[in-house]
Write a structure and sequence with these properties.
Blueprint lengths: L5 H17 L4 E22 L4 E2 L1 E17 L2 E18 L2 E5 L5 E5 L4 E20 L3 E23 L8 H4 L10 E14 L5 E11 L14 E18 L1
Antiparallel strand pairs: 1-3, 1-11, 2-4, 3-4, 4-7, 5-6, 7-8, 8-9, 9-10, 10-11
InterPro entries: Beta-barrel_OMP_2
Keywords: Signal
Pfam families: OMP_b-brl_2
Length: about 240
Amino acid sequence: MIKIKPFLIATLLLTGFALPATAQIGEARSNLSVGVNGGVNLNSVSFTPSIKQNSLMGITGGVTARYISEKYFAMICGAQVELNVSQRGWDQLFETVSLDDNGYEVTSKDPSKTYTRKMTYIDIPFLAHLAFGRDRGLQFFVHAGPQISFLISESETIKGIDMNTLSNTQKAIYGVKIQNKFDYGIAGGGGVELRTKKVGSFIVEGRYYFALFDFYSTTKKDYFARAAHGTITIKLTYLFDLKK
């Protein structure tokens, strides 16, 4: 289980703003942009003890604000913050073992059983924005920084499972509400932005979120030693300039 001290969390929250604020020897900018974003999440959860899973797809979307502070040589420096509604969770993989024509065991997915937990969060990532390219035209960028999240709803789907014969792992999950509704972690990724003069910016981005906090209790007396999200996000963003 990963534990983070409070002072480290505060440091992470400031990371997204520290770089553009401290480097002032480049060409100064003052470009504020706002817009909307939307995309899909491919979700899984890191459990200890482990649970086999399928990738669970969810949606994400919200609003984005970005401030570009300067251009340092070929690198454009800024900070970005978002407010998103994001679907996460996991889909348990059930397997069945059978024998093939040669008598060898074959493991395959069991479609008769289903367990899915869907969790909806409010996500607030604070990201450093570093881009390379022309002021108008294509830019390549990277994002990195901390993210905090708040659980606003959850649901589970159980089908084809005998609730009287559950394993210890299943008993620790099935019907058990999420215990920690606050989540935090690190987000990072990159993408391509098309900046136009009149109609704004169009952005395609891939991002990964690694949670540093467990949504189930993970003390020594609890069943799980880790229960944290890992999310791949593919998203589109549209921004327009408020201040150039």
